[in-house]
Amino acid sequence: MKTTVPAPYGHVHVTLESADKLHVLHPKAIIAYQGLPHLREDRFMDLAGLYRKRKWIRSLLSGPSEFVLGLPPGCSLESVQIEKDSDLLFDLRHIIFFSDGMQLKPRIQKMKNAWITREFVRMRFTGPGTLGVITAGDVKAIQLQKDRPLYVEAGALIAYPEHASIKLSVYGNQLASQHMQVQWEIIGSGPVLIQTGSHDAELMQQLQSNGGIIKRVLRELLPFGGVYIK
Predict the structure, then answer these.
(1) Is-contact 108 120, C-beta < 8 A?
(2) Domain residues for 102?
(3) Of residues 114, 109, 110, 132, the one with CA closest to residue 58
(4) How far apart are CA 224 and CA 205, in angstroms?
(5) In a domain, 184, yes or no
(6) Does any domain span residue 204?
(7) Bridge partners (DSSP) listed for residue 69
(8) Do the domain assignments include residue 228?
(9) Contact yes or no for 1/17 (Cβ under 8 A)
(10) What is the C-alpha separation between 141 and 157, in angstroms, rounded?
(11) 51 falls in which pLDDT band (50, 70, 90)?
């Protein structure tokens, strides 16, 4: 199997050889297909009975064939190789395809974490195989350390080792902790995968406006600056 990564202009071209089979979890993202019609088979999917009555359509595509996946604006797709002994837990929302033969095992999250992050389930994929991971920005792998915690913004975390210690937290002094997004504090060994696209709307606003930084400094430093400087 071959994919074009990084994706040019918001799409990925996937080429399947004769022995390749790929499960696509978002069939509507397939905007072009070249191959024999019977090499695509759509079916209802129920991940190990996890969602009970909640089912959706997925596509099983076989080679030889080619197809194009359209991606949302600002997103990219990375092909991640999963080994047989991998214990990474993925947010299923980031998975757009996986190779045939991989095993999926749901892992229920702690209620406190699920309530805040709205992630009730993470999925463990057992390889060998390939995952198509869709992200805002690029994918970055960071190695965990047992004696130094890693803090990751909750919205940026894609995958972490199942046996790592993980909890919701903030860090820094009082001012820092009061003005940051919820963070995952992770300690252990193995890789953590994050998406690197910025979620800072204020930063984007500054980059798109003329004199944004100067105006912000003046508003904060001058008496009544917030009133007179717009």
Answers:
(1) yes
(2) 2-223
(3) 132
(4) 22
(5) yes
(6) yes
(7) 12, 30
(8) no
(9) yes
(10) 10
(11) very low
Answer whether residue 116 is part of any domain: yes
Token pair of 209, please?
């406006």
What's the pLDDT at 4? 72
Cα 113 from chain centre:
17
- Span 53-78, pLDDT tens digits: 455 788 999 999 999 999 888 788 88
Extract the runs of DSSP E, i.e. beta strands, from 54-170: 56-62, 65-70, 75-82, 88-90, 95-99, 103-108, 121-126, 129-136, 139-143, 150-153, 157-161, 165-169
Total domains in the chain come to 1
* pTM recorded for the entire structure: 0.77
Q: What is the pLDDT of residue 22?
A: 95
Between CA 202 and CA 146 the distance in angstroms is 34
- Give the C-alpha separation, 70 to 162, whole Å: 31
Q: Looking at residue 191, which CATH number applies to its domain? A: 3.60.160.10
Burial class (CB in 10 A: 0-12, 13-18, 19+), 30: middle
pLDDT of residue 113: 67
Contact between 146 and 127 (Cβ < 8 Å)? no
* Contact yes or no for 68/36 (Cβ under 8 A): no
Q: Is 54 helix (H, G, I), strand (E, B) or coil?
A: coil
How distant, in Å, are the alpha carbons of 56, 103, 213, 225 from that of 42? 10, 19, 51, 60
3-state helix, strand, coil in the chain (%, to 5): 25, 45, 35
Structure confidence by residue, pLDDT tens digits, 121-177 = 888 998 899 999 998 888 899 999 999 999 999 889 999 998 898 888 889 998 888
